[in-house]
Design a protein that fits this description.
With about 250 residues, this protein is mostly helical. The chain has nine helices and two strands. Helix 3 packs antiparallel against helix 4 and helix 4 runs antiparallel to helix 5. It comes from Poseidonibacter parvus. This is Lipoprotein.
């Protein structure tokens, strides 16, 4: 009788320990997922903050390329995580980020080009992070496909902002260029002595030895980096696209 009681006691202890360990492991996993979700929320918020700063800086640098009467509404939409602004272009109401990015990088004359870029970026971020959805309690509630697509698109967009020109050879967006470089683009570059007579060089406001403007690049890199951190939290390893893949990328309408 005593022997059976001892066996029963050991069996009971073993079962309790087994379920206790199992419960403990599940609890640890749950806490880890919850912590990861909180970190992703921080990355998302930092992404939105950087986008707002980028818009303000872009409009300041390209003052004739955005709709001033729409600007406050765009800022409010981004600040409140809403998605209600759809621009009418060529008789059609644009709704998808591909449509906005198509016009942002079209090499023809596009009025208010800044707005297409910012709205395209925002709609892309809004969908990837599901900004209009419910609060995420675990990291695995985030959409891996959309976040991976966001990281891919951001690499393409960054490249296009740096390099794309219109059909007259002018950069679509003035970002990295110094003022004297923008001034030079409007001059006859066949004259080798023209640089020293440029307004910003002549007035000693800038030097040809001065580094390019990296402030836009820093802001955009922050956005890209926060998405990269997000992907790692949902167990996806981000990858850098090749230059050839970026150059051949097309925003499908």
């Amino acid at each position: 009788m005593a022997r059976n009681l001892i066996k029963y006691s050991f069996s009971l202890i073993f079962v309790l320990l087994f379920y206790g360990c199992s419960f403990s492991q599940d609890s640890i996993k749950s806490v880890a997922q919850s912590n990861a979700a909180s970190e992703i929320t921080n990355y998302k918020n930092e992404t939105i903050t950087s986008l707002l700063k980028y818009k303000k800086k872009l409009d300041l640098r390209n003052p004739s390329s955005y709709n001033k009467s729409l600007s406050k509404n765009i800022l409010h939409q981004i600040q409140t995580n809403q998605d209600y602004i759809n621009i009418l272009q060529d008789g059609k109401e644009l709704q998808t980020y591909n449509e906005y990015l198509h016009y942002a990088f079209l090499n023809e004359q596009v009025e208010n080009r800044n707005d297409f870029l910012i709205l395209g970026l925002y709609k892309l971020i809004h969908k990837a992070y599901n900004l209009g959805g419910n609060h995420k309690f675990t990291a695995f509630q985030y959409n891996k496909i959309e976040l991976s697509k966001l990281y891919k698109y951001l690499q393409v967009i960054r490249w296009k902002i740096r390099t794309n020109k219109d059909n007259k050879g002018r950069y679509l967006f003035n970002t990295w260029q110094n003022n004297w470089q923008l001034e030079l683009l409007k001059k006859d570059d066949s004259d080798l002595n023209i640089i020293k007579n440029l307004e910003y060089i002549k007035a000693n406001k800038e030097s040809i030895y001065k580094h390019s403007n990296f402030s836009f690049e820093i802001l955009f890199s922050r956005i890209l980096l926060n998405v990269e951190y997000t992907l790692r939290k949902i167990n996806i390893e981000p990858y850098a696209m090749s230059t050839s893949a970026i150059k051949s990328f097309i925003f499908i309408l």
